[in-house]
Q: What sequence folds into this?
């Protein structure tokens, strides 16, 4: 059984071989850890910087046992890790962080919003949907249009559709595949904010300054951080983040997406129990970035400072946009991150660029 | 034949599996490159973060051919790469940077000082030594005591001894092994400075602000940067660095060690044709650190900014000092780097810590 804090030379196991796993691996290496990646992809970008790779499906029990034996703590880069995987890893003696509870809550939008409201983090009004009748009842209560989303899976705008009216209910349900769903009231929001927060094994909670996010076609285009927020709003955001992390007995970094409404109210949209695209600005904007912070937290190390050193505009490089690497590398204020992915197909997250400017002035 | 600038996804070959190779690999990964490490060590710390490892002796022709085929450019983390290795790599079609000339000059202290003086970079007076008679003649000209060093090899204070007097000449020659040597005049120096500079494939030269170095038992203990220097001294240092890099038609990062004498004169002690321990402060003190800068240079990318963001005191963690990782991780202003080496034997460079404070105030 692993003993915390983990000494350098210990092994961090990561489920997932994408860019988040890659940046976690780089951060872990800085602190002297080895990394073992479990991924079904033979040519994943995280494996190329890791000490060890286990190429197998996530639910392969032999692979999970192998990872559990190799790793002193196991974490993940995506939230849709099946519950049975965490159970098996735990049965094989692995410490999994963040734990099963955070995953379970984050995987189901109804459970997530129910949990959030229960711990004092307000969300939009919603209705659980298992039938067209539920949608109709929801429209009665929430008003039209309302947003219909699958309860599980779905991200970057996939698995969701607007229900324009009662007459659209059945067709909308068809559009998302007639699966368990959630109907959400429309929120007249002024802007989307997010906060990256972390909780250590000793219960300490820290939060980076919130960022302001802009999406295009349902995919994150850019985050500007620190966002301009009043002291009152900042306090509210930090309180919400701390409540979520503490209520889940969470260990690691979490991304919490928030809506600031036209009327000034703050709602939680959702949380991701992992490092988060809207936290990439910390890679160049803070001394300890979200990836090192996550490794520190799950390894039982003291958390690092979250003070911003610069104002950062983080922009995702999607698909062929990454072909601009040479021009970006020549921009004095642009810090380029490229993920080592081969195929720049449209919309694929190939890298990002952090453009820095001084905090004052 | 590789075409520059190298596109992301290209492979950077590195001779050497130590901490410099490891940090080069991490920097290369950030820019989307793969790394292939050639090292004779089965458990090297650089291999653990590289996409590919070739475990063989540096002069193994099969390994060199394999590296030349795998890598679009080949670099090294140590300066004592045998000339024949560079010749073989080149014969197998590899681009090697920095090139054979810089290595040859850096490997021989007499050639190095002759070159430096020839390009307008002043050094201490010296005498080439192939016999006790040469030492005696050198003492006549340079005065006693004088410093006797092997012409080749030797670092961190090894392979050198003081010659106290004419009577000590024969014994001193024995102490360094009766090998080709150099006798250096004693310099009354006030402090040791160093500058990390880089030259791109287009001939552009940039330099980081100089650091001030402190050694203990011949090994670097700490570097403080930016060092306090007058504008005139800074200009002199930058001119010297540019002359060295340009004269060698150098591509990559170089560390240049300098002595500031009591009388205010500046002498070059030596240069290292590679990333350098006295440049580790840039990892947390600059947006683009020396490792990314080296990768940019050898890949034919534009060089990055060298502006300091903070005042940094870099301290090496030698041997068991690395066992203090937990206390160091808890220091808010300390950024910890651990190299993933297993055996913390006394004096071994296990990691370093960068302590930051604001530039002004």
A:
């Amino acid at each position: 059984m692993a003993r915390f804090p983990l000494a350098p030379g210990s092994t961090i196991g990561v489920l997932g071989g994408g860019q988040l796993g890659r940046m976690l691996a780089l951060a872990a290496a800085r602190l002297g850890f080895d990394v073992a990646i479990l991924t079904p992809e033979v040519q994943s970008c995280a494996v190329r910087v890791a000490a060890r790779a286990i190429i197998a499906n996530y639910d392969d029990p032999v692979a999970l046992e192998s990872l559990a034996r190799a790793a002193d703590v196991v974490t993940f880069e995506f939230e849709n890790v099946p519950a049975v995987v965490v159970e098996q890893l735990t049965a094989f003696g692995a410490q999994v962080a963040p734990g099963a509870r955070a995953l379970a809550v984050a995987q189901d939008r109804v459970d997530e919003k129910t949990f959030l409201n229960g711990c004092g983090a307000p969300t939009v009004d919603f209705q659980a949907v298992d039938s067209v009748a539920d949608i109709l009842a929801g429209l009665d209560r929430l008003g039209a249009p309302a947003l219909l989303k699958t309860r599980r899976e779905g991200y970057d705008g996939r698995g969701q559709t607007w229900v324009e009216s009662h007459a659209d209910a059945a067709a909308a349900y068809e559009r998302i595949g007639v699966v368990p769903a959630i109907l959400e009231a429309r929120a007249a929001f002024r802007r989307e904010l997010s906060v990256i927060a972390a909780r250590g094994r000793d219960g300490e909670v820290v939060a980076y300054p919130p960022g302001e996010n802009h999406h295009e076609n349902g995919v994150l285009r850019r985050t500007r951080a620190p966002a301009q927020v009043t002291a009152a709003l900042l306090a509210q955001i930090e309180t919400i983040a701390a409540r979520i992390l503490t209520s889940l007995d969470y260990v690691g970094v979490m991304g919490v997406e928030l809506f600031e409404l036209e009327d000034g109210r703050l709602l939680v949209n959702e949380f991701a129990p992992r490092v988060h695209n809207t936290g990439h600005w910390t890679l160049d904007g803070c001394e300890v970035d979200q990836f090192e912070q996550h490794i520190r937290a799950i390894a039982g190390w003291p958390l690092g400072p979250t003070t911003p050193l610069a104002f950062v505009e983080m922009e995702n490089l999607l698909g062929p946009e990454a072909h601009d690497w040479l021009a970006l590398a020549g921009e004095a204020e642009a810090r380029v991150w490229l993920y080592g992915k081969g195929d720049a197909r449209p919309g694929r997250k190939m890298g990002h660029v952090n453009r820095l400017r001084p905090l004052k002035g």
User: Anything to note?
Assistant: Chain A has a mean pLDDT of 95. Chain A has three domains: 11-96, 125-185, 189-357.
